[in-house]
Amino acid sequence: MEAITSTHFNFENQKSLYVGKVRDVYNIADKHLVMVVSDRISAFDVVLPKGIPYKGQILNTIAAKFLDATADIVPNWKICTPDPMVTLGKRCNPLKLEVIVRGYLAGSAWREYKSGVRELCGVKLPEGMKENDKFPQPIITPTTKADEGHDENISKAEAIAQGIVSKEDFELLEKYSLALFERGTEIAAKRGLILVDTKYEFGKLGDEIILIDEIHTPDSSRYFYAEGYEQRQAKGEKQRQLSKEFVREWLMENGFQGKEGQKVPEMTDEIVNNISERYMELYEQITGEKFIKRECPDVLKSMEENISKALKELR
């Protein structure tokens, strides 16, 4: 199937269209959002030049499953998934903060630690840790949510002082995020996986805090295979992981980290197909279900019809 990298729908009562790195978000009457998860792929805050077939279907389906599986912890924005690549939900006012929960020293946190940093977003880090070691307990390292460019690390104290969120709201975000991470960890363990780190986004509907966007997908989370984790750590070997990190590693190996003057390496058909297959593997490992490829002669037409029908049923 051809990758779906853009949509240009015009629904009844549509007020605006926001095109993000991966998602096209349609505002319906300032009351509902139609979130189309495209096949675009981003890394280092840059949208790569080619889409990845089935990636949108994979991310949207995983996110929907986890939103349903955590709805008892925190209310979320999802109303329904009218199409494999679409979630329709309540429009909230997003908080300008991403809550990152880390159970292990990996990714950007490890890169900071390796450079000598021992405090991340106001959280003191233990001495003597190795890459991918488990923290004594999960830590929260928030970032600002930038409209453009890179998100920046921020501490709890700074976020409150800058008025991004109130103290009461931040403490509720902490409580929700740690509970979500615990649930995600339990679900991952049943699949033979370790939830390493993840990010959560929240909004407000009136005065109520609502979980928004995606949750526990391979784009927003990092997973390790549980089997052999301890042995690999003891030997100082790389962990087998399920996440988008393999895309970042491929880019870094080819001289790209999103810095000025750097050029995205050529994405051959082989590279694109390999990434697509890895995402299918991620889906099957994370959900424990076989991935069924969407086979449709006109995906955009089918998507538009499915969304329009769901919007009519909301009235």
Describe the secondary structure blueprint for this structure:
Elements: E1 14-19, E2 23-28, E3 32-37, E4 42-43, E5 46-47, H1 55-69, E6 78-83, E7 86-90, E8 93-104, H2 107-114, E9 119-120, E10 123-124, E11 134-140, E12 143-144, H3 156-161, H4 167-190, E13 193-205, E14 208-212, E15 221-225, H5 229-235, E16 241-242, H6 245-253, H7 269-287, H8 299-314
Antiparallel strand pairs: 1-2, 2-3, 3-7, 4-5, 6-7, 8-11, 8-12, 8-13, 9-10, 13-14, 13-15, 15-16
Helix pairs in contact: 1-7
Based on helices, strands and strand pairing, what is the structural class? alpha+beta
- Uncertain stretches: none
Mean pLDDT: 95
Assembly status: single chain
Order of helix and strand elements from N to C terminus: EEEEEHEEEHEEEEHHEEEHEHHH
> What portion of residues is helical?
25-40%
**Main pleated-sheet profile:** 7 strands, antiparallel
End-to-end gap: 34 Å
Approximately how much beta-strand content do the residues carry?
Answer: 25-35%
Q: Please give the number of β-strands.
A: 16
Radius of gyration: 19 Å
Structure description:
The mean pLDDT is about 95. The two termini are about 35 Å apart. Helices cover about 35% and strands about 25% of the residues. The protein has eight helices and 16 strands. Helix 1 packs parallel to helix 7. It has helices at about 55-70, 105-115, 155-160, 165-190, 230-235, 245-255, 270-285, 300-315; strands at about 15-20, 25-30, 30-35, 40-45, 45, 80-85, 85-90, 95-105, 120, 125, 135-140, 145, 195-205, 210, 220-225, 240. By secondary structure, it is an alpha+beta fold. It is globular. Strands 8, 11, 12, 13, 14, 15 and 16 form a seven-stranded antiparallel sheet that branches. A five-stranded antiparallel sheet has the order 1-2-3-7-6. It has a two-stranded antiparallel ribbon with strand order 4-5.
